[in-house]
Amino acid sequence: MGERPRVEVAGVAVSVDHYVGGERISSPTTFEDRSPLDWSTVLANVSAGDAATANAALAAAADAFAGWAALGPSGRAPYLRRLADLVDERVSQIAAVECVDMAMRHESLRNRVIGRGARNFRAYAELAEQHEERTWSSNGTANRVQRLPAGPAVVITPWNAPFMLATWKLAPALAAGNPVVLKPAEWSPLSASLLADLADEADLPPGVFNVVQGIGEEVGPPLTSDPRVRRLSFTGSPETARHIGAAAAANIVPFTAELGGKGALVVFADADLEAAARTAAGQYDDSGQVCLAGTRLLVESTVADEFLTRFHAHVDTQVMGDSHDDATTITPMIHPDHVARVEGFVERALAAGDEVLRGGIRHVPDGWSGRPEDALWLEPTLIAPASNDSEVVQHEVFGPVLTFQSFVDEEEAVALANSTDYGLSATLFTGSADRAERVGGALRAGTTWVNCFLVRDLTAPFGGLGISGLGREGGDHALEFHADLKTLQIRDETTA
Ligand code: NAD
To answer: Which of 95, 179, 282, 347 has a C-alpha 20 to 30 A away from that of 76?
Structure first.
């Protein structure tokens, strides 16, 4: 089918089609994309990919592979830098579309989140160029470890922070020499389409970057089970990761998974309680739809009351509202189905005897003219669980719901913090340098912040322990994932 007309979203003309082999192609069927800010209106009817779309995209990526690989890191770097420049030029357009499509705060999109995309492309252009092959002599041979591009990579992303997360995964794949087929989430598909426009404008060779839109359960399996795919890079939920991991196992394909979190935020009596309480209240930002959020507040019992007083004071200043408004801190959630899922956690917590300390009810903004059920805000919610086994403590909610527990000593703090199956992030507040080392080291998480939160260095390894993930992204780790490492040994006499 030919290209469908572009739709105007937030003043930007957005393609609703796939991007395959440098061309827009459409599917006969579409899916509806709505805005969390105005659920009554359909933003776009987006092409719903199927097995034929997946096949076309993978064929394009496979065709592009040899040429892209042959360019080498320094031949590919200018394309990545052009992409970075284009992201910088278009921040306001991308932020405008993403804000309407996903409802992340416009202020953070325009000032930080979209710009991270440009930094991802620049960082990986440089990291790949700077890489030096390891060489050494042993056993009468010269040894070299080569990083060979692996082949087409399928990249699958979730609905939260979709543009930034797509670039985070796309940049190392492209820098390493692997053409990419990106499958964005169906609840926020539009910024991936803008990324395809930028790739086109940056003159990426056809097939080096492809976007396939569609419903995960429909287009995911043909994309992930195809033997032409040489790398599978996924960010999303553990449930979906199990399906993709099975496809990876069937074809013996390396698979990396950045999954959900249930981070502990641990506060000791010797901490700066004001900073800790402020950070804890900030976990409601973007309605808690952040994988790295510290959603389990664990506070030393001697300061629990004082902490809670300070925490409530901060939460009382939070503003639930439209994501375009700079004063808003708590945005609407992504989808009515997701709101229902989050409400289900609260209902089951109440039924199980947990105590709701605040929130737990829907918020309808003043002057709301739509149906009440279309207002996708839940008041910032704090639950004191009856037991550490409570569902709301042990499972990722991915909404504005935190739990509160106290502990008496370090041993109990660490035991509670490490008591879930997740292990993506942990946050610790303490005034003691010794404790920072001791407890910081004992917290079981891929990233642990001490007296800070969400500080990221793109070169640091990033990923989760337990069901929070498999493999590491960030810096050289992502480049290694996308490479086939080869040891080349040449007997000394050959070169003498
Ligand atoms: P999800 O697992 O439902 O979907 C993620 C992606 O997988 C979507 O593009 C979806 O269409 C696709 N998909 C669904 N079924 C598939 C299948 N059978 N085969 C192939 N693809 C399929 O996750 P979500 O609800 O979009 O995102 C929220 C989750 O992502 C949360 O658990 C959150 O913590 C996690 N997350 C993790 C990180 C991280 O870096 N660790 C970052 C952001 C989000």
So the answer is: 95
Show the CA angle centred on residue 219, arms to residues 218 and 220, nearest 5°.
95
Q: Ligand 1 center to residue 139 CA distance, Å?
A: 48
8 is catalytic: no
Pick the residue whose CA is nearest to atom 33 on ligand 1.
Answer: 260
Q: Average pLDDT of 412-422?
A: 98
Tens digit of pLDDT for each residue in 437-451?
Answer: 999 999 999 999 999
How far apart are alpha carbons 329 and 325 in whole angstroms?
Answer: 9
Given 98, 258, 300, 473, the catalytic residue:
258
Question: pLDDT per residue over 232-278, tens digit each?
Answer: 999 999 999 999 999 999 999 999 999 999 999 999 999 999 999 99
C-alpha–C-alpha distance, residues 47 and 284, integer Å: 33
DSSP secondary structure code for residue 330 in this structure: B
- Any residues with Cβ below 6 Å from ligand 1, and which? 156-160, 165, 183-186, 216-217, 220-221, 224, 235-237, 240, 243-244, 258-261, 291, 396, 398, 424, 464, 469
Rounded Cα distance between 229 and 430, Å, is: 46
CA of residue 330 to ligand 1 center, whole Å: 22
- Each domain of the chain, given as residue ranges in start order, spans 7-259+468-487, 263-450
* Residue 421, SS3 per DSSP: coil
| HEC readout, 40-93 | EEEEEEEECCCHHHHHHHHHHHHHHHHHHHHCHHHHHHHHHHHHHHHHHHCHHH
Domains 7-259+468-487 and 263-450 share a fold: no
Ligand 1 atom with the smallest distance to the CA of 260 is 34
Architecture in CATH of 7-259+468-487 = 3-Layer(aba) Sandwich (3.40)
Atom of ligand 1 nearest to the CA of 214: 11
Query: 263-450: what CATH class?
Result: alpha beta
Known active-site residue 300: no
Is the CB of residue 429 less than 8 Å from the CB of residue 451? yes
State yes or no: pLDDT of 2 exceeds 80: no
pLDDT (0 to 100) of residue 1 = 63
Asked whether 16 and 193 are in contact (CB, 8 A), the reply is yes
Tens of pLDDT, residue by residue over 9-67, are 999 999 999 999 999 999 999 999 999 999 998 999 999 999 999 999 999 999 999 99
Q: Indicate the residue type of 44.
A: A
- Tell if the pTM clears 0.90, that is, is over it: yes
